[in-house]
Amino acid sequence: MSSLFNHIFIPFVILFIFADKLKLDLKKIAIFSFFGIFLDFDIFLFHRASFHNIFILIIPLLAFIFMKYKETPGIIFFYLASALILDIFDGGVYLFYPFYDNVFFARTEIWFHHGFMPVLDYGISKNIMNNGRNEPMISSENFAVSVILLVFILISFIWSRGKPEDHVPVKKS
């Protein structure tokens, strides 16, 4: 459950906090939260490689650069980039796959042996680090929460479209 929590909730809260300053639509932040877990659909291919690389960021980055309205590709880019960064700290990712097949990873620890000492360990490995966990990649809880989230996103999208007569301008006399 932590992966779903990390990939959706953390970037959502960050975008929500800065929504006023960046002039972001809260509905779009909620609707595009799906992209926080989009990278994990490579579970059916070569997990943490097929979609978990920097090349997946090219399309939303180019859209952000060249489109007139930058809000949507910016939100999508943020969700995808945050998922990559969070997964680097959760066992690592094949960041430059298919051109380089080693895993980039980072780990943080806090040691209390001789006082308080935060430690950042990072590097390149041949395999994804397990971090001592034996949880499944897709649990029934993650699947259920993902389905519920997708239903709410769909309802929000339908609700935001409204009825066609709601969009007719009113003439003032």
Task: Describe what you observe in this structure.
- This protein is mainly α.
- The chain has one domain (2-167).
- It is built from seven helices and two strands.
- A hairpin with a 5-residue loop joins strand 1 (103-111) and strand 2 (117-125).
- Helix 1 (2-17) packs across helix 6 (71-88) and helix 5 (58-66) packs antiparallel against helix 6 (71-88).
- The protein is globular.
- The model has no long low-confidence stretch (mean pLDDT 79).
What can be said about the biggest beta sheet?
Answer: 2 strands, antiparallel
Distance N to C terminus: 57 Å
Structure summary, number of beta strands:
2
- Rg computed from alpha carbons, rounded to a whole number of angstroms: 19 Å
Integer count of domains: 1
**Residue runs with pLDDT of under 50 for 5 or more positions:** none
Q: What percentage of residues falls in helices of 4 or more residues? A: 40-55%
Globally, the shape reads globular
Keywords: Membrane, Transmembrane, Transmembrane helix
Organism: Candidatus Methanoperedens nitratireducens
Protein name: Membrane-bound metal-dependent hydrolase
Give a quick rundown of the structure.
This protein has 173 residues and is mostly helical. It has helices at 2-17, 19-22, 26-31, 35-38, 58-66, 71-88, 140-161; strands spanning 103-111, 117-125. It has one domain.
